[in-house]
Amino acid sequence: MLQSSRKMSSRVGIEDAASFNQSSGSNQTEADSWAPCRDYSIYPFLMVVYGLVFLIGSILNGFILKFYFCQAQQQASSTIMVYLKNLAAADFLLCLSIPLRITNYVSRSATVHLVHCNFGATAFYTNMYASILFMGFIAANRYLKIVRPRQTRVRQRVWAAHIVCTVTWVFLLTLMSAYIILSVHTQKPLTSIPNTLICELLHNDQHGLVLKFTHSCSAVIFLVVLISLLFFYYSTSRRVLLAQKKQPLSSSSTMLKKSHRNMLVLVSVFCFCFVPYHLVRLLHVFLSKNCTWSKVLHNLTELTVAVSVLNVCLDPLIYFIFCKAFRTQLTKRAVCTNP
Known about the structure:
Layout: H1 2-33, H2 43-70, H3 79-96, H4 98-106, H5 110-147, H6 154-185, H7 205-246, H8 251-287, H9 291-309, H10 311-322, H11 324-337
Helix pairs in contact: 2-3, 2-4, 2-9, 2-10, 3-5, 3-6, 3-10, 4-5, 5-6, 5-7, 5-8, 6-7, 7-8, 8-9, 8-10
């Protein structure tokens, strides 16, 4: 009786081990099948780009955050300052997630790859879309100031701006937490690093549905902000043209022209950084099944993601042109260092 139970338990153990090896083997085979459809020669260039962006972006956004918390607190807050502060915070957090992305390119460690897929990439894209939303809020604030300047009081708008920013962070962090939990829960057993570092191959089919939902939400956020920015720019352009026709040499017309120029800078930075990545993502939906196109799209995706990260270096320009107190502070420092 004891001998038969031992045989039965050993048989169960062998079957469990076989099923685990089969699962890991299928995962490895699936990854190997994608190997010819990936080109990693671009990774050294990307590591250099990300390294420079990390250094420059961390310094610039760290300085801006220091300015806001040390200097701007002495002055009355405004809606534009609230949005600019949150934009700088999102950019700084995005910078902090870049080293893990660089490490994932270099390392062959399974632990590093899993941490990047489950946590690093999630934090990376969460802060990217936080930047997109806050740029949209800044544009909306400028639009209301130019087109409808007397609709609300300053205190009410500042109070509303704090609520909008809080709701935005809660929404994004909730999605981020849910995605991380589901990623860990749906993760396949992995005994060795696959030849292709594809995060999607580490999870089962349930994760694929979550990924599609996440991509859909991201696409909706981008499109809403893009359409809003174009509408705001068009509306402010019309407002400036009307003011120039009525009073071309007035001070109000000059201020409107300046605000219109600032809006153009904001829209230009947004389109330069984020439009290429989302266009490639759209192509990826339709052409990713073809191996030849998949290799091209993989490189384009990696390049356009790197371009989108450049916003952490370009957003300080937005802070400079929209925040008079920041410009004054920089001018004072320049005068002190160059007497």
